[in-house]
């Protein structure tokens, strides 16, 4: 399952590793701040941020039903993508994220491809995800990689776009 290019390497890592924890906080900070700035004109309250980051431990990305991949660029951890089984045939793509300084180098497509491989290894025949309307870059990435908008598969509070892709 590990993937490596000249500068990039991607490999499974425990959902609670130090690198995963730093990247989860960076991911949550960016998407939360983006929502608050758009809708309320301020960044996320630091106490709320700490509570929300701590509340989502990512245990659903642990084996045997899940996996978290950490992307490294020139050895430094810069991104994540996770999958978790929702049922025997369906995996959910979670926490696809690259630090700003690592974007534009092809890492997002590598992360999603590695996550799709991980989902297949878990037995999934399709993969689903949710995202928000303001995350236009994410929606463009998923469309470019063959994901199609679909009916909602969950009732996540902030989700307003759902995608699916056949893996077989």
Question: Short description, anyone?
Answer:
It is built from four helices and eight strands.
Notable traits:
globular; 168 residues; Aminopeptidase; eight-stranded mixed sheet; alpha+beta
Describe the overall structure.
The protein has 168 residues and is an alpha+beta fold. The protein has one domain (3-123): Gcn5-related N-acetyltransferase (GNAT) (Aminopeptidase, 3-Layer(aba) Sandwich), CATH 3.40.630.30. The protein is 34% helix and 30% strand. It has helices at residues 18-40, 46-55, 107-121, 136-144, and strands at 3-4, 8-12, 66-73, 76-87, 90-98, 126-131, 148-149, 161-166. Strands 1-2-3-4-5-6-8-7 form an eight-stranded mixed sheet, with helices on both faces. A hairpin with a 2-residue loop joins β4 and β5 (90-98).
CATH homology-level superfamily: Gcn5-related N-acetyltransferase (GNAT)
Q: What CATH architecture would you give?
A: 3-Layer(aba) Sandwich
Helix proportion range:
25-40%
Q: What's the CATH first level? A: Alpha Beta
Can you tell me the CATH topology?
Answer: Aminopeptidase
Give me the secondary-structure topology.
Elements lengths: L2 E2 L3 E5 L5 H23 L5 H10 L10 E8 L2 E12 L2 E9 L8 H15 L4 E6 L4 H9 L3 E2 L11 E6 L2
Parallel strand pairs: 5-6
Antiparallel strand pairs: 1-2, 2-3, 3-4, 4-5, 6-8, 7-8
